[in-house]
Amino acid sequence: MRTYLVTGGAGFIGSNYIHYMFRKYGDEIKIINVDALTYAGNLENLKDIEDRDNYVFVKADITDKAAIAAIFAENDIDRVVHFAAESHVDRSIKNPEVFVQTNVLGTAVMLNCAKAAWELPDGSFKEGKKFLHVSTDEVYGSLENEGEYFYETTPYDPHSPYSASKASSDMLVKAYMDTYKFPANITNCSNNYGPYQFPEKLIPLIINNALQGRNLPVYGDGKNVRDWLYVEDHAKAIDMVQEQGRLFETYNIGGHNEKQNIEIIEIIIETLQEQLSEDDPRKALVSKDLITYVADRKGHDRRYAIAPDKIKAEIGWEPETMFKEGIKKTIKWYFEHEDWMKNVTSGDYQNYYAEMYQ
Asked: How far apart are CA 177 and CA 173, in angstroms?
């Protein structure tokens, strides 16, 4: 049985990845989920798999070297999938040091513990061990011109404390691959959306606010462009990179779904109005009149767009979910999990660990 160590598995992308892996592999794998359960970590995301015999949750911070080393000492880890990171740009602008601590130091701890567990006396590494570092397209900076895309060869040019911390962690992984021939890959993905996303991010924020008749905040002129990737497509890509990717390579993962922020909001409003029944009182609340333009974010990158040519050519992955289909699936999920959104927005989700594990 192959054993996976997933960091940040109680977060948005990490929990979706764990669900995907159990759907695909069932009892053929074991997953150890390590999460510090900061504000974005939510064990309610994993309620339906927490009783599996081949799933283990460990509450630990990736900067805690002793805790991470103990996990490697007590388990024969075959794969590391490293999601754990502070990831919200606005929070990074207000408190950059937390991002450096988690994203840079935490990645160094993960690399050192994996290296210590996997390295053989001659400096080579045990057969079949792999470390996958999950990163972001924001490390590349901003695209100014139509028709330009981020490639794996695009120079790094991060603009926010968040993207700078992720660029730093990428460079650490690159250094370990170059110096030690450490068996790793890096993936840089575009903006994800889908189930279990914490409602500080654009799409769940807009869904939640619109259903309550609250203002829908739009930075600047609303024309900043992002490439949107449905989270299950991302989970599939990560699995394929781990199994088929060439060691030491970086793979960009994009959704072929470039949209302006204002377009995203308008599509969400239209989709909500389509999906709400005529007798649902929330239908009257959902309106474009809620759109409210606010002062632009500091250092706000204008456009991101990924060219996933390499991952398609080498591995055969490409996104399967176009945005209008994905947003319908996402909104349907939120309608079916209103208690989840209520618990998250009220903060009650943070009591779940105490109730279940203490």
From this structure: 6
| For residues 189-202, average pLDDT | 92
Q: What is the pLDDT of residue 79?
A: 98
pTM: 0.94
Contact by Cβ (8 Å): 224, 217: no
CA-to-CA dists, residue 341 to 8, 150, 338, angstroms = 20, 34, 5
Q: How many residues does the chain have?
A: 358
Question: Sign of the CA dihedral 238, 243, 245, 248?
Answer: positive
Which residue among 20, 140, 162, 251 is the active-site one?
Answer: 162
Would you call 291 exposed, middle or buried from its count of C-beta atoms within 10 A (0-12, 13-18, 19+)?
middle
Residues 6+ apart with CB under 8 A from 25: none
> Backbone phi, then psi, for 106, in 5-degree steps?
-60, -40
Q: What is 35-81 written as a DSSP string?
A: E---TT--GGGGGGGTT-TTEEEEE--TT-HHHHHHHHHHS---EEE
What band does 146 get if pLDDT is binned at 50, 70 and 90? confident
Per DSSP, the three-state class of 358 is coil
In terms of C-beta distances under 8 Å and separation of at least 24 residues, what long-range contacts does 268-272 make, across chains too? 268/203, 268/206, 268/207, 268/210, 268/327, 268/331, 269/210, 269/216, 271/324, 271/327, 271/328, 271/331, 272/207, 272/210, 272/211, 272/331
Active-site residue, from 44, 86, 137, 239: 137
Nearest of 218, 248, 230 to residue 317 by alpha carbon: 230
Alpha carbon 168 to chain centroid distance? 17
138, 227, 233, 258: the catalytic one is: 138
Concerning whether 138 is annotated as a catalytic residue, the answer is yes
Residues 75/80/81/83 CA torsion (nearest 10 deg): 80
All structural domains of the chain, each given as residue ranges with its CATH number in brackets, are: 2-357 (3.40.50.720)
Please name which of 235, 155, 127, 243 lies closest in space to residue 189, comparing C-alpha atoms.
235
Q: Up-side HSE of residue 136: CA atoms within 13 Å toward CB?
A: 29
What single-letter amino acid sits at 297?
R
pLDDT of residue 349 exceeding 70: yes
